[in-house]
Amino acid sequence: MQKVLVVDDEIVIIDVIQSYLEKAGYQVVTAMNGVECMRQFILYKPDLVILDLMLPDHSGEDLCKTIRAQSDVAVIMVTAKSSINSRIRGLSLGADDYLIKPFDPRELITRVKTVLRRTEEHRLLAYSIEWDDGKLIIDDERHKVFARGEELSLTSREYDLLVTLARHPGRVWTRDELVVRAFGFQYEGDLRTIDAFIKTLRQKLEENPRQPRYVHTVYGVGYRFEVKPL
């Protein structure tokens, strides 16, 4: 049963959404403020978050940024803000959909089903990823990495770092972004330790770590994953 976290400061709206979601076969957890939202998010690891943007203690935009920095979970923003700029900002923060109050709960259920189907298809396709004509394989379902036919012995940090980079080929990541996305917002290490992780990852991954084919340094910014032609 897929789990949905509903975050809104109006109990009537929570009750209505929860009732419709449960009738549609979803397991529902709720929160009425930002602090409770993050507690429930970490505790229950929902498949989708329905997030009101106007909460008493935190803005929904900030919560969306925090959630998106550490997870690919589906997010539907719900708000009374109807301006096009608000919608653009919400989607640019990583929301998968945006619904304006007042809305028909049946429309919300349809959007929940659509967003979950789309994100689930993406996850299934990403369980095993190959690059470089199969010379590099990341099997996320088994938590294994193979390079040139041999399984690599990676630490959990090295693995998380590689997966974060490889799932977004061509994207340039700053050290701050990599820390939050790969290690979580509670990571307390120095940002420069990312450089050490990259160094050891290259030594295990690359045929020639001094001339990497996969994990590249973008000087003055951070790192990028991209298969460099021979």
UniProtKB/TrEMBL annotation:
This is Two-component system response regulator. GO terms for cellular component: cytosol; protein-DNA complex. It is found in: Cytoplasm. The keyword Transcription regulation applies. Keywords: DNA-binding, Phosphoprotein, Transcription, Transcription regulation, Two-component regulatory system. Residues 126-227 bind DNA. GO terms for molecular function: phosphorelay response regulator activity; transcription cis-regulatory region binding. Residues 3-116 form the Response regulatory domain. InterPro entries: CheY-like_superfamily (IPR011006), OmpR/PhoB-type_DNA-bd (IPR001867), Sig_transdc_resp-reg_C-effctor (IPR016032), Sig_transdc_resp-reg_receiver (IPR001789), WalR-like (IPR039420), WH-like_DNA-bd_sf (IPR036388). Residues 126-227 form the OmpR/PhoB-type domain. One of its GO terms (biological process) is regulation of DNA-templated transcription. The modification 4-aspartylphosphate is found at D52. It comes from the Bacteria.
